[in-house]
Amino acid sequence: MKLITSADNHIYKRVMQLKHKKYRDEQDLYLIEGPNLIREAYNNGADIEMIVQSEDYTESITVKSDSPMAVMTTGLFCKLSDTETPQGILAIVKKRIYPEEEFFDPKMSASNLIILDRLQDPGNIGSILRTADAAGFQGAILLKGTGDIYSPKVVRAAAGSLFRLPVLMEDTPDRVIRLLRKYGKRIICTSPNCSKNYYDIDMSENTAVIIGNEGNGVCDEFLIKSEILVKIPMEGTIESLNAAVSAGILMFESVRQRHQKRII
Q: Against a cut of 0.90, is the pTM above it?
């Protein structure tokens, strides 16, 4: 295999492009880095277009693959890496685009959804996707204005959940609400200005939980058209929780309720 030694090489240029959202959107591709994520991608049937590794990378990822592989000098690879300590291997992955009918899988008709309303922080977005995956949610709907889920920071924070959790992008709150009602989802919105605590509401199934922007909260249209507004009660003078923490509390309350119903 020929060693890539120049930044003029087309493979190097292509990977460098995919560090930017514009090119990820144009090509429906994104980058994953490190042997663990690449192993997760293969194990979950992700479409890996190419693997790129540093010349000094020695670890085996122990997967069967017919994906093309490129090797480049350590110096070039480090320029492509998005981490302070490069792991020596990355992959170009095809985005999985879910049409409406596949996203709302009838076999999971009773399952819950998480809705991200213009969240911006990559750590929050990735953590919420990972938590939704762990909580057995059907998928996540991202409203336009939410940060790019295929950015390197979100991909790392999601820790492989992007390969398992269906994601649907929608342009407007009205479109999201129409879809949720079409498929029989009860809409629950978080708001500090309401009287109902989250644990007093049935969230065990057929529920869509909306989490709002870190600074501005949930948009007015969601607040007005949701069936139920809930809050997380807090002590002292704290006004709000981190978005990912709030989402985690609500999602795992739905898990608790679901398990409780099974016991009863």
A: yes
